Amino acid sequence: MHEALTAFAVDTSRHQTQEHIKPLHWYVACRLVTEGGFHPDDITPRPPISATKRGGRWLLDFARDAGAAGERPILGGLKTKNVDVTVCKDGIGPVVAVSVKGTLGALRNFTNPMEEAVGDCTNLHISYPALVYGYLVVIRANRQGPDTPSNDVAIKADGTIVDSIRRYHDVLVRLAGRNDVRAEASKYESVALALVNPEEPGFGEVLPSFPEPDSPLKLRSFFATLYEQYDRRFVYAAPALESRTRRHEWASNSPILDREDLDEFFPRVHHD
Q1: Which H or E run contains 83?
Q2: How many domains does the chain have?
Q3: Cβ within 8 Å of residue 18, ≥6 positions away
Q4: pLDDT score for 197
Q5: Is the pLDDT score of 239 beyond 90?
């Protein structure tokens, strides 16, 4: 996460290309494998990870050549949408999707991102009501200073968050928490908002003070909510499909689990 957010924080381009956010796509994809228990072959972009079954156990290993970039187009109710990260099951379709929105500046008006978020969510849920859809928002926490354009300020000189971001947070709260296939199509199953520090100290780290500790948009619960909703819809509610939909548990002696950069994950490990 820190490496992905560092790449985001250092981007100084005034044109928001995908390059500043792609490392986060890879981070999400890798986490869906190691922590979520989804097979890497089912994920786009495909993570640089191999999953091999030996002796009845699934072993994970790092496999750089296996990685493949890209976005998967999903047929929505209104239009086809290229989604940043997806998990698709053969014969079932898209089961998990994550859209990642990164904002570097122009923080005074979030009207367009709000409308886009509602539209994308509604569009996909019309075609796939059971789809577990997550929305991950990262904003560069530019501090007010003599060289910072006023429109790009996220944190005022006194340390408080600008009103536009607070309003954006409140809208995102209302878009989160869809917990049933019959619930509002315009709501996401899970939403997270993170402000990323672009300077020292704490360069490339998530600002701990906002959202507040009791906010439902804290990053720590984002992935757990995705897994919970997936299990409820595609495993517990469909026992006849459980052999195909049940999330994998990885062998505790998987080579990849020895990597230090997995410390922040909670690998889904099988315990004998």
Answers
A1: strand 80-83
A2: 1
A3: none
A4: 92
A5: yes
The span from the CA of 176 to the CA of 186, in Å, is 9
Q: How far apart are CA 137 and CA 161, in angstroms?
A: 16
Minimal CA–CA distance to 44: which of 91, 119, 99, 117?
99
Domain that holds residue 86: 2-270
* DSSP code string of 202-245: STTPBPTTSS-TT-TT-GGGHHHHHHHHHIIIIIIT-GGGHHHH
Rounded Cα–Cα distance for residues 145 and 163 (Å): 17
Query: How far is Cα 59 from Cα 256, in angstroms, rounded to an integer?
Result: 8
Report the sign of the C-alpha dihedral through residues 173, 179, 181, 182, in that order.
negative
Instruction: Name the average pLDDT for the chain.
Output: 91
Residue 135 host element (H or E)? strand 132-140
Residue 269 in contact with residue 249, Cβ under 8 Å? yes
Helix (H) or strand (E) holding 30: helix 22-34
Whole-model pTM: value is 0.93
CA 32, CA 39: separation in Å to the nearest integer? Answer: 9
Q: If residue 99 lies in a helix (H) or strand (E), which one and from where to where?
A: strand 93-103
Q: What is the DSSP letter of 247?
A: P
For the stretch 59-90, what's the b/e string if a residue is b when 16 or more beta carbons lie within 10 angstroms of its beta carbon? Answer: bbbbbeeebeeeebebebeeeebebbbbbbbe
3-state secondary structure of 51: strand
